[in-house]
Queue: 3 jobs
Job 1
Amino acid sequence: TPQDSWWKSATAYQIYPRSFCDSNGDGIGDIPGIISKLDYLAELGIGFIWLSPVYRSPMADNGYDISDYQDIAPEFGTREDFDRLLAGARERGIGIVMDLVVNHSSDEHPWFIESRSSRDAGKRDFYVWRDPADDGGPPNDLQSFFGGPAWTLDENTGQYYLHLFDRKQPDLNWENPAMRREIWKMINWWLDRGVAGFRMDVIDLIAKEIDRGIIADGPRLHEYLQEMHRETLAGRDIVTVGEAWSANTENALLYSGQARNELSMVFQFEHVTQQWDGKLGKWKPRPFDLAALKRVMNKWQLALADDGWNSLFWGNHDLPRAVSKYGDDKRWRVESAKMLATVLHLMKGTPYIYQGEEFGMTNAAFSRIDQFKDLETLNFYDLQTAAGVAPEDFIAGANENSRDNARTPVQWSSARQAGFTTGTPWIDINPNHSEINAAEALQDPQSIFTHYRCLAKLRRELPVIVHGDYQPWLEEHPQVFAYSRHLDDQTLTVVANFGDRELQLEVPEAMRAEGRGLIANYEDRNVIGARLSLQPYEAFAILS
Ligand code: TEU
Ligand code: CA
């Protein structure tokens, strides 16, 4: 039944191929590198991999600019390598979920090359073209998410094309049914090869109505998704997750409601953006506020209690490292990383681990702008320093929130170049790889890795984690995150100290519990009495 879909009891793992594992010494992670780590991933106990783009691409945005949706980028490998990855994963019971980037393509995609060739080219309307404003400038003052105008003039035809991201990422025109048919064909081609589903890049932007100033969540969005479902996904047992920065608890039910025939779930970002400055955005983070974070997390748990489905994540390739953002990546790194995993993975939804999170990788500590590689960071450095922000202040913000924090190579061992490559890595490796690495974590029964493995196993084995309802506790407490889950006659209670101070807690009567300790990052616990004393970053769960 849909109620019991496989992806509800699965733990997901995101791979950003460029930074995962390099097999041939060119400094860039690749598909053979991923294949060499499949046993490691099977050991962790994941159910599917979300693979960030591996398609042919000029790599202006590390593969989120696709020039051939049905080929593999040579730096990542060949189609044969991909088929070996698919087969190797399948043997281990792991699905491969592709990244579907269809809000835009690369400007080097044949569709765009044809589209720009003349005003009456057959594929002109595969993209969004507009006449210049009266003064010859862009049609309007819309800004790209990566900074600067969202329009670029094509000299040859005298019109501007829209790009909500980089100028090398022209937006596809979803109003064009012929364009949509090409996308459906491509999706079916991948599904027929046996992929387990898709993560859909900025899916909330596809129905923009640019002349009416509508960018996200356009009027035809759900119509397009239902058409996609009908033409491609229907009748197949796959998982889909849409990236939707504009998602709220109301429209999440439109995307993921059972009867809607759209997506399995969305990635929502309310817990992320609530921490950004109103004006300078992510480059000027707000101080961490646990009560505010809980309000968002609890709201989402409750809103999708009966219909729809949550995705659960602290990090991805666009976000800082979980332990650096929400924990303490120095003194309490191991404790706080386990605490974060416990709180997230025992909620209702499908949890996503971002590569390296499973052994507590931390943010990059770059001190010079030339160490950053991400075009978003580099563009905003130029824009904000030109507007008067001091370079060192910008770099301080980037050290907290730049996308490159998640993109330093996975630290496999304490060896030279962290066992990631035998050559020169495309981006600097974190020097802390001598202590923080997968090899170390694998041989330590108390490691963060062991903790994640245990959480994935609990999810596979205990229906209360998958289906149980959600009851938050101590909602306004500034340092404690607590909740319980109920299914039939079982109750799972989770308690976590989100701070580096030991604390004494008065426990509300209804929250008290006694049972079997399931997981803990200090001593095992099996009682929650009237008073509870919690160690720094302590977290545990009890089943009663
Ligand atoms: O991200 C969408 C997106 O909006 C982010 O780039 C966001 O603007 C940024 O992280 C916050 O400052 C998706 C992909 O995840 C990202 O890697 C791509 O660069 C982007 O789409 C374009 O494809
Ligand atoms: Ca390589």
Job 2
Amino acid sequence: DPFVNDPPRDSSLIQHTEKPCNAETPTSLLDTFITPNEVFYVRNHLWVPEVEGTTHTLTVELPDGNEKEYTLAELKSKFAPFHITATLQCSGNRRKHMSAGARHAAGLQWDIGAISNAKWTGVRLRDVLRDAGVDVDARYLEDAKHVQFVGAEAYGASIPIDKALQARGDVMLAYEMNGRALPRDHGYPLRVLVPGHTAARSVKWLEKIILSEEESQSQWQQRDYKCFGPNQTGKDLDWSSAPAIQETPVQSAMTSIKEVSPGSFDASRELQKPGLTEDAVQVAGYALSGGGREIIRVDISADGGSTWQQAVLLPDEAEGQQSWSWKRWHAIVSRPVVGSEMVVKAIDDGYNTQPESYVGQYNFRGNLTTAWHRVRYPFSE
Ligand code: MTE
Ligand code: MO
């Protein structure tokens, strides 16, 4: 049993599978800006490899075949550390909604918790590549189009060289999560953090980096994390006809809907309701976009999408050169406008938004499932 040495897990995580561990953050714990390490969602394709922090070595392979090695201690002493606040979201987050809203999509039936946010500490991939001999400011690099990452248990993925070298891309070799060494489930002792991209590219238990003409040949690059048309299936499919998912589209979800009265106080959102003169309904949740694009607006409907109002975006402070972190939001909905379905959609700074339904967004692998989040309300009806 390769899973015998997997670490213990917090009992509040919602486990979809145990071996490998796939567990989401419960909705009730998605309301803090920073997700505590213990309840950060876990997405493992295989077992958790046992990697020794003190002796761990990262190998960087250059296009000419030359290799450079760095121990974890060398990475920490040689390069300037930096911090980013970044959300990781699995490509399958909310797949359950696609299965319910269109038809069954293959894979783990995640609810809204295959997403979490943390403050990460590490060194810049760009700095390490420069040290290894890469001309990081070159306008064109012969033979280096992709940066492949290899995990200690065999998982692998890659990102385009432009993201890896971008001075404002903030791609990190991370060794700390929320001020503590990475937990084993999240890549101890070293993982890549590719902010703004789907979490599948943030390879855990990082052992090797390969600069290459080609993408990673792993199934997770070549097949699993791609989107096809609503009519396409795995049968007779040319998997190479779609690109691997990298930057992600706009996403949002409601994490709570509750009755509020003029005297109530929401400590988690530091929200006093001075203007509240009557009983109302408070809706709250998260919103994010990929590629460093910022969420500029969140629209709420309490009647299934006929009429709308704008949510308030919380002023949480995130570190990083671009917008890598989810935004929390809340809205107070007046009783008279409450219909039978709450809906949320978000908009990013490119005015990209979410599709209204899953019918047209359906893809058989159930990736990037981002249609408007709808919840029947009042719950009893
Ligand atoms: N890295 C390794 N080595 N093995 C994995 O199974 N899963 C990927 C990515 N990196 C994975 C990995 C996927 S699909 C996701 S969604 C994220 O890790 C999950 O990161 P987390 O478990 O820290 O939340
Ligand atoms: Mo994922």
Job 3
Amino acid sequence: RGKKAFIAGVADDQGFGWAIAKALAEAGAEISLGVWVPALNIFESSYRRGKFDASRKLSNGGLMEFAKVYPMDAVYDTPEEVPEDVSSNKRYAAAAGLGFTVSEVAKNVEADFGKIDILVHSLANGPEVTKPLLETSRKGYLAALSASAYSYVSMLQRFGPIMNPGGAAISLTYLASEKIIPGYGGGMSSAKAALESDTRVLAYEAGRKFQVRVNTISAGPLGSRAAKAIGFIDDMIRYSYANAPIQKELEAREVGNAAAFLLSPLASAVTGSTVYVDNGLNAMGLAPD
Ligand code: NAD
């Protein structure tokens, strides 16, 4: 039986979510996506116009297909919590019929596919990411934590009950959680620290409750859309190339492959882990150059 996967946080073919989808598709999984509501139109029209066709190519010659694409906003758990200014927004109003909150998406996925095996959280958002922590507002800080850390808790809460025992979840984190990375601001470093700590606690709780494994990948720098919004991604890629043990650019595909391993029975005893997929940069104590 092919495994069923739900991936939240894909809106183009440039990021880690897409690469994870690709690696899972290569392994024979059936994949559905949760796409951020404001990004859904452009994602679907680009998809229809064939903009992603080259990146959809599988090694067997076929094209990666998605079983279903759901509108989603991971900062809302139930429709009652959606504020008026959001629900009246044109794009959100269009998605409201189907339901874009985490609980509604989980219900819809269950109605369409029954139980799933794989849950992927590949999303983050920090409205004040370009501001130093010392200049971050309470609102910006809490928004970063809500979108980038609590969203994983919420997804496990709502999707855990519809996961088969033996299933697994993964998220993406960044070294700024544990080491100072100037420029990764707005509480995003705090959000990643929470995400990694939560990965341990959730591994225990979801392990006992659902027999589901919970891990996170600490990825090296990639020029995704989200990363470009931070502003210093080219410098980070250069820094990593110059200073990491393995001197090459990180490909999204490498993170996709590591995720496919962690989400597969090959990793059946791996849970609660932060796994570095960063050409080894995290292990350096001093820049050699
Ligand atoms: P990306 O832009 O491809 O992915 C981020 C996605 O999050 C986007 O598709 C966006 O639409 C979605 N999103 C934002 N807010 C959302 C919300 N409220 N609800 C649902 N979806 C929402 O960029 P990426 O770099 O591949 O990011 C994926 C993950 O990888 C993030 O957790 C990011 O922090 C992490 N990461 C990235 C890097 C890097 O250098 N790019 C390094 C380490 C970790």
